[in-house]
Amino acid sequence: MTTTTHTTAADNTDTHTTDTRTTATDITVPAVDAEAAAERLRRWRLVLGGDGGDGTGCALAGTDAAMDRTLEALYGSGPGDGSGRGGPRGAGLGGSAPRVARWLGDIRTYFPTSVVQVMQRDAIDRLGLSALLLEPEMLEAVEADVHLVGTLLSLNKAMPETTKETARAVVRKVVEDLEKRLTTRTRATLSGALDRSARVSRPRHHDIDWNRTIRANLKNYLPEYRTVVPERLIGYGRASQAVKKEVILCIDQSGSMAASVVYASVFGAVLASMRALTTRLVVFDTSVVDLTDQLTDPVDVLFGTQLGGGTDINRALAYCQSRITRPAETVVVLISDLYEGGIRDEMLKRVAAMKASGVQFVTLLALSDEGAPAYDREHAAALAALGAPAFACTPDLFPDVMAAALEKRPLPIPEAAV
What is the predicted pLDDT for the residue at 98? Predict the structure, then answer.
């Protein structure tokens, strides 16, 4: 009996194992898509550059080969690049303007605009092509973006007269594109904020600010009726020429702040176009320049800046402070990475004094799409302790930040901010 049971169990086990194996062999594994595999290999070949040791064994022809040459010229390794490769892979761009112009045309042929802009940036940084941008034919070949504008502004003083008109045309194209993107929402957001910031004591029913009205009448709370008697109504006013706020944009024009300078200049022009706002634009390094009279044209503002040099935030804030006439109705926006070359303690005292007088003080480490730059964390922490937290701000968020400042609400600070 025992033997029979054992034999049956073994037989069952064998049968189960056999069935399992049979089922496994019946599963159909999809065949590898040869076309997709070839495309992946082609892409890896373009990325790796075709060095003998890249392992792809893939040869390129036609358009792919031409695309590869444009990548080699920029990203190819030379004998002294520290890559460890035996010899130069790329031809480079050298110092030939015609050759660079052809290369700029090639990348626009083979790659989308967003990639072209990145490659241009890399070419300027890696191959030192800034000097070639002083030639008109170069500027006509490039894809214009905020970063290119920043580079052109840094070269402004060295730019020959034959190039300046072309450079202005390039900058104007970028500025006009930014104005189309940013103007409508900025005006709509700030117009609403200005309406709400103008309080009136005899509002129409639909203009009553119920939150403020309830707070102002809490002393009139009737417990037995569980209600507040609104003896005093507070309402939203209507923005008019008589209801004005003052905005001072104080912009650090050191080299690392190039994108912020571009965006701030465009926003400055938009704010200046709003009747209910008085806008002042101040740029600084170790000196201070007031560009308010040029705000009708942000291109003029940009060419009035001088990227690079040192930084004296204290001096810039002293100038801004001297221009404040109505502290309670003023918003000061400092756009800087906070690397102070001036007197730190004096800078902090000025910020404290402005806030104590009723000024809304906003500190932006950057006004761009690139996130927070390198910045002085000690100064940022000191400003935060004064109630002026420093944070990076995207152009899309800036109207909301300004609206909150105009209404004296908490600023919409991103979670990743200081």
Answer: 59
What is 2-65 written as a DSSP string? HHHHHHHHHHHHHHHHHHHHHHHHHPPPPPP-HHHHHHHHHHHHHHH---TTSS------HHHH
Per cent of the chain over pLDDT 90 is: 33
Whether the pLDDT of residue 161 is over 70: the answer is yes
Burial class (CB in 10 A: 0-12, 13-18, 19+), 279: buried
Q: How far is CA 67 from CA 28, 36, 77, 78, 103, in A?
A: 39, 20, 17, 19, 10
Q: Which two tokens stand for residue 399?
A: 């109207």
Instruction: In whole angstroms, give the CA distance from residue 234 to residue 215.
Output: 10
Q: State the average pLDDT for the chain.
A: 79
Nearest 5°: CA angle at 216, between 214 and 219?
90
110: left (phi over 0), alpha (psi -120 to 50) or beta: alpha
pTM above 0.70, yes or no: no
State whether the Cα torsion 347-353-355-361 is positive or negative.
negative
Whether the pLDDT of residue 2 is over 50: the answer is no
